Amino acid sequence: MVQTRSKAKASLSHEERTATEPRDEGLYPVTIETVTPVNNRIKTFRLALREQDTFNFQPGQWLDVHVPGIEQAGGFTLTSTPSQARPRPDSEHTPYLELAVQNNPGNPPAAWLWQSPEEIIGKEVNVRVGGSFVWPPPEIDYATIKRAVFIAGGVGINPLVSMLSHINEQETEPEVRILYSSKVPSSDTQPEEVLFLTRLLDLFRKPRTHSTKNCIELFLTGTWDGAPLNRRNDEPIQPLMSLTLPQIQSDTEVPVTAWTHRIDDTALASAVGNAEEAQGTVFYVCGPAEMTDSIVDWIQKQKNVDPERVLCEKWW
């Protein structure tokens, strides 16, 4: 199953673009609890749920978000896990949903969320869950999944971080590989300024159940301010690389490598693996339309890859 969306839909509203996608019928009230800047282009929002209720969703889904005074809904991907939305008996855990929203003055719901936090914290918004780009893949026998390769471009990491966090919560999981391509704010970028990078690193620092082959590859494609990332070919930037890419010795951690170029055929071929690995792998790709189309097309054409095991979603 390959989920794709036409470039012609880029000018449509979220609800128009996703009209054929599955979504819940009713709206659910939530309260904006916290707003946390990631960098000067992205913020995360924690939405508090009523403790007596249960909000069900699948990792990878998005929300229709109805904010006060704006008729059209915004579409924002859930970055939290289903377990974080559930009440926990005998625990101080407060059920919540999390979104990561890019600054976009041309998107009224996003612009409303990007008001001063003092203006919106404590306000109620109404949400509805939807989407079919989910983990685990509904049309694939889970028992046949030995490896999962997640490929993200920019904010395309949003649905994938929900999936990866959910996988990490399970007692058994497939071998996981992440290819994450992103621009960074500047040549002085700190790890916490790259969307969900520190969360991904924390997930992979936890002891894994069986696989020693899990790994993260970062592809840093440039800076927002145009400053060079390197002086020589593929020389890692500082201090980002020095903080995130130490020589890893612990058995509870996995290799992390970084490159200052786009995800290329060499990286994709390595991710696909040999014949046996490719046949047992499911691929999730999420990013800008051109990147997503190119990567999906390349992977599907590989000899031992079942095209039905390549799933994708594009962002606009």
Using brief descriptors, characterize the structure shown:
FAD-binding FR-type domain-containing protein; 21% helix; single chain; globular; 9 helices; FAD-bd_FR_type; disordered N terminus; Riboflavin_synthase-like_b-brl; 316 residues; 27% strand; alpha/beta; six-stranded antiparallel β-sheet
Provide a quick synopsis of the model:
This is FAD-binding FR-type domain-containing protein. The protein has helices at residues 14-17, 108-113, 117-120, 157-169, 197-205, 240-244, 265-272, 275-279, 289-300, and strands at 28-37, 42-48, 62-66, 74-77, 96-102, 124-130, 147-153, 175-184, 215-223, 256-259, 281-288, 310-315. With 316 residues, it is α/β, with parallel strands linked by helices.
How would you describe what is shown here?
This protein has 9 helices and 12 strands. With 316 residues, it is an alpha/beta fold. The strands form 2 sheets. It has a 6-stranded antiparallel sheet with strand order 4-3-6-1-2-5. It starts with 13 loop residues before the first helix and ends with a strand. Residues 1-8 and 242-252 have low confidence and may be disordered.
